[in-house]
Structure formats: structure tokens, C-alpha cells
Amino acid sequence: MQTxxxxxxxxxxxxxxxxxxxxxxxxxxxxxxxxNLIRQMSQHAHSEVIGMQPEGNWITRAPTLRRxxxxxxxxxxxxxxxxxxxxATESLGITRSKLIELLQTGVAKYASIFNYPTLTWADMGAxxxxxxxxxxxxxxxxxxxxxxxYARAMxxxxxxxxxxxxxxxxxxxxxxxxxxxxxxxxxxxxxxNWWPSLMMFGPHDSDSAHSGxxxxxxxxxxxxxxxxxxxxxxxxPQIEALGLEMPDPELxxxxxxxxxxxxxxxxxxxxxxxxxxxxxNYQRLKHHKKAHKDGEWVRTAVRAYQEKQTAKNQTNVA
Length: 318
Ligand code: 3HC
Description:
Blueprint: H1 4-18, H2 31-50, H3 52-56, H4 65-90, H5 96-104, H6 122-142, H7 148-176, H8 180-199, H9 211-216, H10 224-242, E1 252-254, E2 259-261, H11 267-277, H12 281-294, H13 296-317
Antiparallel strand pairs: 1-2
Helix pairs in contact: 2-4, 4-7, 6-7, 6-8, 6-10
Bound molecules: 3-hydroxybutanoyl-coenzyme A.
3-hydroxybutanoyl-coenzyme A binds next to α2, α6 and α9.
């Protein structure tokens, strides 16, 4: 039940949102705002961490030492993004272990794109270019999200994602201008990753369960469909520059709208993947559980060290 004090705090909160002020961890916030942020931010963190798997799969098979160094660095960046985002989420009063439990029991989602396999080296190009490219389009708008720790984390993340996008596009340029087989590989990787990249923006606005509240609270600054269109408009000229065939025959410039038209996403596939039945969902969670279990000794050592330090400080005070 809302008290008089809560009602006053709610008014102040609403005004701060209108005034574009950031909400900080110790500020009063409506419970639904907190819950919605925990949901979105933790799913974002999980996506960064699970996203290390499909690319990590190619580190040992990168074609040159230079490619290997770049890919290794990119995958490490993604791990770092996950860590900032988990820390930012914890500032909302939930523990890391609870967040991991929600992921591993299938309650919390992560980006659907990472449930597809990476079949050839060209997937490293297509993922960097399309997946990180789509992630940036979404995350640039999140730099202005209303929750301070999330907005600040996004600034560094966007800078790194932009390097990821460039390295992916560079791989694609080399393949697209290489031998017939390399060009075919680039085309195939783009075709396979195109639709899942468009799905990254979520369902149509009319079907988006959380957009209403998230837009009102300025957690989300631009809608799923708006951002998806922005991504399509910026990517089609890049496909042309690569000299590849369009992955969707319906991609056509629409003079009246001032945007590219495109075909419809297979939403049945989208819902299957986000509900756990994509090609690699089982494998991704299985690997995460194993890695988490293998790392238990690190957490035990950290806890033991912290307990020792606390006991030492208490002795010093006494
Ligand atoms: N994959 C998985 N789940 C998705 C999804 C996707 N592509 N798109 C939507 N969903 C889920 C939502 O999480 C929600 O599920 P829930 O109720 O169980 O939480 C449901 O589908 C309904 O969708 P909504 O549109 O109502 O959800 P949102 O308002 O949260 O919008 C979003 C979805 C646009 C993805 C939004 O959450 C968002 O902007 N998130 C932050 C960005 C993010 O998570 N990016 C991950 C990209 S991967 C990445 O950055 C890694 C890098 O290496 C590329």
C-alpha cells in the first residue's frame, strides 16, 4: 500500500524523470521501476557473457595471429561489459548469485542471437558487423537512460562495441573481395545472421510488453521498431559497398517513407528461441553452468580473503 510519504516521493521521482535528471542507487524509486531495470539490465549482462561463447568458439581457429589477437580482445571486452552491467544491476539491491541463478534456471533471458551456431570464420565478420552494429544502435540510445549507473556503463561499452563493429566489417571486406569461396562464405554468414540481428531489437512496438512503462520512465529512449529501422537504413548501404546480395529480397528504398522497406521477421522462430528452443540454447546454458562451477574455487578464495580482512579490521579497532 502506498503511504503519504511514498506519494510525495513518487511526485518527486516523476519530476526528476521529466527534468532528465539521473536516478541514482540511493534515491527513492518505484518498485516497478527497480524491477524493470533489474530485468532489462541483468538480461543485458547475461547477453554480454553468453555472447562470448559463439565467438570464443573461433579463437583457436582464427586464420592468423593478428585475427586471433583481435578476436581474443573483443571476447574479453564482452566479458568486461557483463561485469560492469552486473555491478550496475547489483546497485539495485539484488545479488550476483541470484542473477546467475535466474539465468541458469531459464527465468532470465539473454539476447536470442547467441542461440545460433557460428559455422565458419565469416561468422566472426558477420557478428562483429551486424550483431555489434545492432547492439550499438540500441545502446547509443541507452547512454541517455534514466538510471545513472546504467547510462554511465553504456558510454564505455558503446566505445568498445564500435571497435567491434569495425573489426567485423573489416573481416567482411577482406572476405567479400577475396576468392569466390571466401565471398560465398561472407554471403552465407550475412544471410544467416541478418534475421537474428533484426530480432535483437525485440518484438514490434505493438507487441512489446515492457515498452510502455520503460519509455515513460526513460529506461528505454527509443522504441524497438524505430531502432530496428535505423539499423536497417544504416546497414543496407554497407551491404551494397561489400558487393553482396541482399539477405532479404524485399529490402528496397521507399522514397515516400525515406526508409528501406523490408520483409517480415519470422516471429514464430523468435519466440521459440527466446523461450529456450533455439538451435543452441541448451548448449549455451550447459557451458555457462560448467564454467560457473569450475570457477567456484575463485569465489571461495575471495570470500575467505574478505572474511580474514574483516576479522583483522575488527581486531585493529578493538
Ligand atoms: N532476445 C531475447 N529476449 C528478447 C529479445 C531478444 N532479442 N527481445 C525481446 N526479448 C524479450 C524481453 O526481454 C521480454 O522478456 P521478459 O518479459 O521475460 O523480460 C520480452 O521479450 C518482451 O519484449 P519487450 O520488447 O517487452 O522487452 P524490452 O522492453 O525489454 O525490450 C530490448 C527488449 C530491446 C532487448 C531491451 O531489453 C533492451 O534494450 N535491452 C538492453 C540491450 C540489450 O540487452 N542488448 C543485448 C544485446 S547483445 C550485446 O550487447 C552483446 C554484444 O556482444 C553484441
